[in-house]
Specification:
Helices cover 38% and strands 17% of the residues. By secondary structure, it is of the alpha/beta class. The chain has one domain (13-269): 3-Layer(aba) Sandwich (Rossmann fold). 40% of the residues are buried. Bound molecules: guanosine-5'-triphosphate (GTP) and magnesium ion (MG).
C-alpha cells in the first residue's frame, strides 16, 4: 500500500522475476526492517497513520542501506520523477548517447507493466533492469536495492533510476539516490508545480523538457519556473529538449559534476 494514494503493490517483477522478499542482505546492504501489515480495510484512522509511518520507516531503512552502498562505491544515483510521458526515457537514451561511454553507467527502469523502457535503454547501449510494480504507483527502496545487486554496479559510476510516471507518490519514497530530478514537459501546463508541490519540493533539479515545442504552444516557461521556485526556491532549472538536444550540455555538465563529487566523497571517507 502506498502512503499517498493507498494503491496496492500487487506482485513486483524485476526483469520478469518476482521481487525477492528476504529481509536480510549480505555485505554492505545488510539491515533489518519491520514488517508492515498492509491490510488497512476496516481499521481506525490512527492505525492507518501508524501503518503509513511504519511503511515509510521501513522504506527509509532500505534507502539508507542503498545510500551507504552507493556512497562507499562512489556511485552517483539520480531518481528521475515526472508525470507519464514527460520524456524521461527519451532523455535517458539521449543522455547515454551523449555521454558516449565516457562514464560507466547503468539504468533501473520502473513501470507498472511492460519492459519497453528497459529495452530502449539496452538498445542505447547501457545495462538496464526493468522493475514492474504491478498495481504500485512508485518504486521503493527495497525494489531498487535488489535491482542494484542484480545490475552489479561498477565503482565510480552513474546510476540513473526512472521512476514510475506519477507526479505524486514517488515524492514520498526515498530510494537512496543523491537527488531527485523532476521532469516537467511544456505540454503539461505551467501550474503543475503548484498542484503537485511535494515533487518539486523534493527535487534538486527541474528539467523543463520539450522546449522545442514552445513556438507551437501557449505555455509560459518563465511562469512555470516561477511557480516551481515558489515551492522550492533552491530548485535548479535546466530548459531542455531531448529531441533537439537544446540544454543537453548543461544537463551533462551537472551530471559529470555530481559524479566527480561522488568519487571525491568516497576517497574522503576511505
Ligand atoms: N517534441 C518533443 N517530444 C519529446 C521530447 N522528449 C520526449 N518526447 C516525446 O514524448 C513522448 C513520451 O516520451 P517518453 O520518453 O516515453 O516519456 P516517459 O516520461 O519515459 O514516459 P513513461 O515512462 O511512460 O512515463 C514520446 O513520443 C517522445 O518522443 C522532446 O524533448 N520534445
Ligand atoms: Mg519512460
Amino acid at each position: 500500500m502506498c502512503t499517498t494514494c493507498g494503491c496496492g503493490t500487487g506482485q513486483t517483477l524485476i526483469n520478469g522475476k518476482p521481487l525477492h522478499k528476504a529481509h536480510r542482505h549480505s555485505g554492505p546492504m545488510h539491515f533489518r526492517a519491520r514488517e508492515v501489515d498492509a491490510d488497512v480495510q476496516g481499521v481506525s484512522a490512527s492505525r492507518i497513520v501508524k501503518l503509513e509511518q511504519d511503511l515509510l520507516a521501513k522504506n527509509n531503512g532500505y534507502a539508507e542501506a542503498n545510500r551507504s552502498y552507493l556512497s562507499a562505491h562512489g556511485i552517483f544515483a539520480l531518481n528521475l520523477v515526472s508525470s507519464p510521458g514527460s520524456g524521461k526515457t527519451t532523455l535517458l537514451v539521449k543522455t547515454i548517447a551523449a555521454l558516449n561511454g565516457s562514464l560507466p553507467l547503468a539504468v533501473i527502469e520502473g513501470d507498472q507493466q511492460t519492459d519497453n523502457d528497459a529495452a530502449r535503454i539496452r538498445a542505447a547501449g547501457a545495462p538496464a533492469i526493468q522493475i514492474n510494480t504491478g498495481k504500485g504507483c512508485h518504486l521503493d527502496a527495497q525494489m531498487v536495492g535488489q535491482a542494484m545487486r542484480q545490475l552489479g554496479l561498477q565503482d565510480d559510476s552513474l546510476l540513473l533510476i526512472e521512476n514510475v510516471g506519477n507526479l505524486v507518490c514517488p515524492a514520498s519514497f526515498d530510494l537512496g539516490e543523491a537527488h531527485k530530478v523532476v521532469i516537467l514537459s511544456v505540454t503539461e501546463g505551467e501550474d503543475k508545480p503548484l498542484k503537485y508541490p511535494d515533487m518539486f519540493r523534493a527535487a534538486e533539479v527541474m528539467l523543463l523538457n520539450k522546449c522545442d515545442l514552445l513556438p507551437h504552444l501557449e505555455f509560459d516557461a518563465d511562469l512555470a519556473i516561477e511557480y516551481a521556485r515558489r515551492i522550492n526556491h533552491k530548485l535548479q532549472v535546466i530548459r531542455i529538449s531531448a529531441t533537439s538536444g537544446a540544454g543537453m550540455p548543461e544537463w551533462l555538465e551537472w551530471i559529470k559534476d555530481g559524479c566527480r563529487n561522488a568519487v571525491a566523497a568516497k576517497q574522503h571517507v576511505a
